[in-house]
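Question (not urgent): is this output format expected?
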Amino acid sequence: MKIRKSFMLFLIGMAILPAGCQASAGTPSGQRIMRVGYFPNITHSQALIGMARGDFQTALGEEVEIKATQFNAGPSAIEAIFAGQIDLTYIGPNPAINGFIKSEGEALRIVCGATSGGAAFIVRPAALIRSAADLAGKKIASPQLGNTQDVALRRYILANGLQTLEQGGTVEVVPTDNPLILDMFRLGQIDGAWVPEPWASRLVVEGGGEVFLDERDLWPETGGEFVTAHIIVSTKFLAEHPDLVKAWIRAHIDVTQWELEHPAEARELLNIEIEKLTGKKLAAEVLTMAWGRMTVTWDPISESLFTSAQSAYEAGFLKEEPVLDGIYDLKLLNEILVEKALPAVR
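Got this back:
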């Protein structure tokens, strides 16, 4: 009740902010604004490529101004959704789950998928990790406490009869920023890491690591597919501007189809955009390896999201069993898929 009251007070507060601070506030010329977020990351390829090629601007029309913000972590993007600072963002599953639960289902909706796969468990050869049992007494890194890969790692540990240090076991999980994970890996300060792309491939190419587990192997029930990134929209913006959301999703599907049909060109353009945003290109070998471990999509792969939510609960990141009724609003996505004679998604 306290959470719900606080959130409702927040919405009331947002309603009385100056017009320039509200979602999709008009400019003096009457031009509408759509504020979007994404990460300078390979798993958010449609956002980077679509912005670079102008697909989203063309779909929205000249009367709409796109204001883009780059994030480095999912929680920051969720905070921006809560604060009314962005309308739509590409993001991983666990931050979306957390945002939905914390706002009691009020803040956001998942409207489209973006990426499947693209995560792996990489180990140092010297650590002699050949089976799950060998993780006992080892030090394993993840990108962030409670993030998607962190939850996947802890789920794997529990599923194999082991426990983390905080649970009284012997496996030490060390949440660490991805760049530091690479440094620690090279120095032998960790035995392995469960990370998203392109960091998994960088640990192999630049750190001399070995692939202990490609996470796709843990999802036989979905044919090896699991959600790594999808598109969420604030419920307020979705209710007020379904036309803009629909236009964005349509462009997203177009970009996805182009990437699937032109993978070499897509990788090259993506790397150019990553260099613009981060100051450094990915090595060609890293980019090719990472691209091969993921699949761009518009399917949100909902089954994997519910599994991830249950795993987060079992790992102690959610205090109550997750109730995610209403987290998806796929009406616009399925309307577009019907228009394009493509199969609808659940």
